[in-house]
Amino acid sequence: GGRDLREPVGGIMMLEGIKALQADPQTRVLLLVSKPPSPAIAERVLAQVRQGDKPTVVCFLGGNRAPIVAAGAIPARTLQEAAYSAAAEVEGYEGASADEVIARETVDLKAQATELKKRLKPGQKYLRGLFSGGTLAVEALVVWEGILGKVLSNVAVDPRLQLKDATRSAGHCAVDLGADEFTVGRPHPMIDNDLRIRRLMQEAADPEVAVILLDMVLGYGVHPDPAGELGPAIRQARERAAGEGRELVVVASVTGTEGDPQGLGRQVRALKEAGAVVCGCNAAAARLAGFVVG
User: Fold this and answer.
1) Where are the beta strands (DSSP E) in 163-224?
2) Which of 71, 138, 220, 231 is 20 to 30 A distant from 241 in Cα terms?
3) For 4-9, which contacts have Cβ atoms below 8 Å and span 24 or more sequence positions?
4) Distance (Å, whole) CA 86 – CA 157
5) Would you give the distance in Å from CA 198 to the centre of its chain?
């Protein structure tokens, strides 16, 4: 959970999970993922990692790599890097390393961004990320740090980069629409797309916006057909911009599988038919969006 590694909670769920998996004879590799943790709780978690003898990949988004290495674990900057790094630790894995995959992908994304950039007007310069998943928002911020530098957000780790008003974008920014200020008295955006659709239209009306990044998460307990709602909204936003003589680039990622009730392929097709550029994961989508305006 997003609050587990904060001091009031103390990381109790992650600590118990690590202990259980370290003791499980069928578990070969551990992968730990968290939003930026409290330093004290991160230290407690890494102390437990040291007690085990199984390869452990740690992705504390925006965190310090040095303590992870000191604990004998494998650090990862993004969820994408973490996934490939964990797979590489499984006996018999013959795929490419995380660095190789991301390096090849980055070449392709830069070429794609160059073509997308040609469609923009000179005044279009800003990137806006509209997220339903807070962890994915933080991952995008980690990616953009190396491409764009300072990006404002309502979930920024650095208080100097906090959006003054999360209901109004400024410069390059990422908004977690699942944060507390947006979900009091209303359903989470993974369940109800209304708030994100309205924000999408708000951003599309800004002539300085070049690219909008969206995430979509599939599974149980979320919207049964998110692309069925977001797709028409993306189409409408792009048509609105086109009516004003602008191209609006919409980049998206879908986190899920064909085994999810919504169907990964069906959701991806719906987004592409609406005019979105769909990437294989959130980190790749963030890179592409960043390269378009970077």
Assistant:
1) 173-176, 209-217
2) 138
3) 4/34, 5/34, 5/35, 5/37, 5/38, 5/41, 5/42, 5/45, 5/60, 6/37, 6/38, 6/41, 7/38, 7/40, 7/41, 9/41
4) 26
5) 20
pTM over 0.85: yes
- Residue 168 contacts by C-beta under 8 Å, 6 or more apart in sequence? none
Domains assigned to the chain: 12-88 (3.40.50.261), 109-293 (3.40.50.261)
DSSP for residue 159:
G
- Give 6's Cβ-side CA count (13 Å radius): 7
118 pLDDT band, cuts 50/70/90, is very high
User: Contact, 132 vs 188, CB < 8 A?
Assistant: yes
pLDDT tens-place string over residues 123-154 = 999 999 999 989 999 999 999 999 999 999 99
pLDDT above 80 for 44: yes
Q: Could you give the count of Cα atoms lying within 13 Å of 241 in the half-sphere of its Cβ?
A: 28
CA dist 19 to 16, 32, 51, 57, 90, Å?
A: 5, 12, 9, 15, 19
Q: Which residues contact 203 (CB under 8 A, 6 or more apart)?
A: 128, 130, 169, 209, 212, 237
3-state secondary structure of 129: strand
* 3-state secondary structure (DSSP) of residue 279: strand
Torsion of CA 275, 276, 279, 285, to 10 degrees: 150
Q: How far is Cα 231 from Cα 275, in angstroms, rounded to an integer? A: 8
Q: Is 276 left (phi over 0), alpha (psi -120 to 50) or beta?
A: beta
Instruction: Please measure the distance between the N-terminal and C-terminal CA atoms of the chain and give it in whole angstroms.
Output: 32
Query: 129, 286 in Cβ contact below 8 A?
Result: yes
Asked whether the beta carbons of 238 and 200 are under 8 A apart, the reply is no
* Tokens encoding 275: 């005019």
